[in-house]
Amino acid sequence: MSFVKNQVGALEYLTAEALQGDIVHGFSTRYGGVSRGELFSLNLGVHRGDEKENVVENYRILGQAVGFRPEQTVFTRQLHGTIVAQVGKNDCGNGLFREVTDERDGLMTNEPGVALVVFSADCTPILFHDPVTGAIAAVHSGWRGTAQGIVCKAVEAMRQAYGTEPSDLQAAIGPCIGQCCFETDADVPQAMLQTVGADAEAFIRPTGAKFHVDLKGINRLWLQRAGVRQIDVSEDCTCCQPDRFWSHRKVGNRRGSLAAVIMHKEGARP
Question: Which of 3, 156, 159, 207 has its CA 20 to 30 A from that of 110?
Answer without folding.
Answer: 3
